[in-house]
Specification:
Blueprint lengths: L5 H4 L10 H14 L3 H10 L11 H9 L1 E5 L2 E4 H17 L8 H9 L11 E3 L4 E2 H25 L6 H8 L1 H11 L5 H9 L5 H24 L4 H8 L8 E10 L8 E4 L5 E4 L2 H18 L7 H9 L13 E7 L6 H7 L9 E11 L5 E17 L4 E11 L4 E2 L6 E2 L2 H21 L5 H15 L10 E5 L6 H7 L9 E6 L2 E14 H23 L4 E3 L15
Antiparallel strand pairs: 1-2, 1-17, 3-4, 5-8, 5-10, 6-7, 9-10, 11-14, 11-16, 12-13, 15-16
Helix pairs in contact: 2-19, 5-7, 7-11, 9-10, 12-19
């Protein structure tokens, strides 16, 4: 079967469906996880290549291991030991852009101004202070080490033990690292680790770093899982911010002042390209015309989408346009209403279906005399349709994906297009799998039937890694692609229901597991409560820990990542 479609099946808006608190908590958890053994091994396999001037001599390694770089509480970290945190901090930051694929470097430079292919010590992170990216990563590394040791010390004090699987992994640690070293052409594990972390790295200290990090991570997870809340806790938490867990359906049309500019003077630049400039009078006339049309659209008569679109098409500025119309946005969370004025208006509890308004779009600047000048660039026309308080209960389902195979790439769009024959082949295969399952469950109870479905999913599905039985838990509205979601949230859906649906990825053999007691609203509230409590807890255990920076000169500020 072909590779996993799991990331595609779940909508790209997964992150957009999270509240800001959830996003921050997710980043914090990932940052901590990045220092566990499992993740660290993956990191050293796929990302970093050390570049720049690195002295790798026995003496340099000895100095790196013996130099007291920083004291964190009662834990002394040598330059070599701090380098584990430092290098992984850089690599983890780079990994945040991995979803951009070949464009990871470009987006990192565009969004944050860092070029990961160049030495971090030669790039300025803060122009006001002159702090380099190397300085930034050293600080982040020390902060991460502080959290990890705070967690580790508590875990030790409570006699916390690693899970059985993690302990087995640690018991075989040397073998794993040796295997990776050999795989990538190194004669020894120490040589491999030195290429990643510098001259002072060796198997003994790296194993200890990994052990401490893993204990800290599992202790963090155990504390998080121990948090429990009641329905009353949820209602108390969201009482003052009810809007934040609601979603909204609305229609919006944007009027741009530039569309109303008339006249102008045409000149040519040095390269011969035409440039049109407008006088102050022409700009003022355009602004007045745009405002007039905005006010004309935002009237009570345009209380339906059909009426609003008819009024939009009737505008003089749109006489030569065939596609002028409002855009409908469905199930948009409060936190995703990025314009604060729209957010305030649309979430007003007095808002009724059909309400419509005009919201000014403007920028401010300072003129030569130091006065603030407002420049109106357009208007949002917003029509309220309805709010959704997200009281839908979460769903649990299993599925088997039979992906389309073959296809031809469209020369214009670049998308892969499948023929009717190719789609029919996938559909037939999906029906065959459903029939196979039905034959296997004769005389079986519900639990046994579900297990048999999961077994087939593990063997045959083109989604997942063959271990989850095609299970998707806690499916919430807006999370999955349309047909998949519609099947899950059918009001008539019952435990044990099966069916076959088509999406852009292929045919899915569906199995309905159960309906959660938790609503999507409480799911979000629970996540935010957990994030807030974990943040408070982490702060309380790290605050008492002292940090003494002794000698940070040995940190490799010439470190860079060469993307493969």
């Amino acid at each position: 079967m072909s590779g996993s479609h799991k990331k595609m099946l779940r909508k790209e808006q997964n992150m957009s469906a999270m509240t800001e608190k959830q996003k921050q908590a997710s980043k914090e958890a990932k940052k901590l996880k990045a220092y566990t053994l499992t993740f660290a091994v993956v990191m050293i396999v796929v990302v970093a290549i050390l570049v720049g001037i690195v002295v790798r001599t026995p003496i340099a390694g000895l100095i790196s291991r013996s130099t007291n770089a920083v004291m964190i509480g009662e834990h002394k970290l040598s330059t070599a030991e701090l380098s584990y945190y430092y290098v992984d901090t850089i690599n983890n930051h780079y990994e945040q852009y991995s979803s951009y694929g070949d464009y990871a470097q470009m987006y990192a430079k565009w969004i944050e101004g860092i070029d990961f292919s160049k030495p971090v010590g030669e790039q300025i992170q803060d122009k006001e202070t002159g702090k380099t990216w190397a300085d930034y990563y050293v600080e982040e590394a020390i902060n991460s080490a502080k959290k990890i040791f705070a967690l580790y010390d508590l875990a030790v004090a409570e006699n916390f033990k690693l899970s059985e699987d993690s302990q087995k992994y640690m018991d075989s640690f040397e073998e794993y690292i040796e295997a990776y070293s050999s795989m990538y052409g190194y004669s020894s594990a120490n040589g491999y680790l030195r290429s990643m972390y510098g001259s002072g790295a060796n198997l003994k200290t790296y194993k200890e770093y990994s052990r401490i990090s893993m204990i800290a991570s599992e202790y963090y997870s155990a504390h998080e899982e121990s948090l429990e809340y009641t329905i009353d806790d949820y209602r108390e938490f969201d009482n003052e911010k009810y809007n934040e867990y609601s979603s909204y359906v609305y229609d919006m049309y944007t009027i741009s002042v530039d569309s109303y500019l008339k006249g102008g003077t045409v000149t040519k630049d040095e390269e011969g390209d035409e440039i049109t400039t407008y006088s102050d009078e022409e700009k003022k006339a355009a602004a007045e015309a745009a405002k007039k049309d905005a006010e004309g659209l935002a009237i009570a008569d345009n209380n339906t989408l059909e009426k609003l679109n008819a009024a939009i098409k009737a505008l003089e500025v749109n006489k030569d346009k065939t596609d002028a119309a409002a855009t409908t946005s469905s199930s948009i969370l409060y936190s995703k209403l990025t314009n604060k004025d729209i957010q305030k208006w649309i979430s007003d509890t007095s808002r009724k279906p059909g309400d419509i308004t005009s919201i000014e779009i403007s920028t401010t600047s300072t003129d030569e005399d130091g006065n603030e000048v407002k420049d109106v660039t357009g208007y949002y026309i917003v029509r309220f349709d309805r709010r959704n308080d997200n009281l839908m209960k979460l769903r649990n389902v299993r599925h088997i994906l039979v992906a389309f195979e073959g296809g031809t790439k469209d020369k214009t769009t670049g998308e892969t297009v499948y023929s009717e024959a190719e789609k029919a082949a996938a559909k037939t295969a999906a029906h065959d799998l459903l029939d196979l399952w039905k034959e296997s469950i004769e005389g079986k109870n519900q639990e046994e039937a579900e297990k048999l479905f999961a077994d087939i999913a593990n063997k045959e599905s083109d989604d997942g890694d063959g271990t989850t039985g095609g299970l998707y838990e806690d499916v919430y509205p807006g999370q999955m692609v349309g047909a998949f979601e519609n099947w899950c949230f059918d009001d008539e859906r019952a435990v044990g229901d099966t069916g076959i649906i088509e999406t852009e990825y292929g045919y899915h053999v569906m199995y309905y597991v159960s309906t959660d007691e938790m609503t999507y609203r409480d799911y979000m509230v629970d996540a935010d409560m957990t994030a807030a409590d974990m943040e408070e807890w982490i702060e309380s255990i790290t605050k008492p820990i002292t940090v003494a920076k002794n000698n940070l000169n040995g940190i490799n500020r010439q470190y860079a990542i060469a993307a493969s």
